[in-house]
Design a protein that fits this description.
The chain has 182 residues and is α/β, with parallel strands linked by helices. It folds into two domains: 2-47; 54-180, Rhodanese-like domain (Oxidized Rhodanese, domain 1), CATH 3.40.250. It contains six helices and nine strands. It has helices at residues 2-14, 18-47, 57-64, 77-82, 118-129, 141-147; strands at 54-55, 70-73, 89-90, 110-113, 135-138, 152-153, 159-160, 162-164, 178-180. The chain has a five-stranded parallel sheet. It has a two-stranded antiparallel sheet with strand order 6-7. Helix 1 (2-14) packs antiparallel against helix 2.
């Protein structure tokens, strides 16, 4: 697939006519973008047990502006410092305990996210066990958020294109932004 995308890019850059550019776009690029999203959706659905209700990025965008959600980032501190959603509070996945959320009202809507949704779902299950009643998992995590052209900020609260992708293998699912991994 990388070879085909590279070939399409070369044709696109070399050919000057508008018609050729449209042809490359419709024949080469758009089908792979759609297939890539379908593959991402398959991966997410295979990873998740769907024990925590999902909220999609457009729903979060529509409601977050009203301050309806407490937003919790469940990744590592290294991932969080590279970038996170604006307004997100850090909750460490590996070191999670009930003390981290003791000040959150149990009826407060909470949206959790991680890279793609697996770790946030696991924290969501723990919150449900602790009696939190309105827990949601952001579909596709920060990857889907960024892939849909939403903003993330760094540790200085400045917009950034960098996203920690956990590792090289998982970086394939981030289509937009600068991939950072150890």
């Amino acid at each position: 697939m990388n070879f085909i995308m590279h070939l399409a890019k070369e044709i696109f850059l070399r050919k000057r006519s508008y018609l050729n550019k449209l042809l490359v776009l419709f024949v080469f690029i758009l089908p792979f973008r759609c297939m890539s999203q379908k593959n991402f959706d398959k991966k997410i659905n295979a990873l998740l047990s769907h024990s925590v209700p999902l909220v999609h990025e457009n729903e979060l965008n529509d409601n977050f502006q009203n301050g309806e959600f407490m937003l919790l980032d469940t990744r590592s501190i290294e991932e969080y410092e590279i970038s996170h959603l604006e307004g997100a509070h850090f909750i460490d996945y590996d070191g999670f305990n009930s003390e981290m959320v003791k000040d959150i009202n149990k009826d407060q809507p909470i949206v959790l996210y991680c890279s793609v949704g697996y770790r946030s779902e696991k924290i969501g299950e723990k919150l449900q066990e602790l009696g939190y009643t309105k827990v949601y998992n952001l579909y596709g995590g920060i990857f889907d958020w960024k892939n849909k052209d939403n903003q993330v900020i760094n540790s200085q609260n400045l917009p950034t294109d960098s996203v920690h992708t956990y590792n090289r293998n998982w970086s394939q699912w981030l289509e937009k932004g600068i991939k950072v991994y150890d």
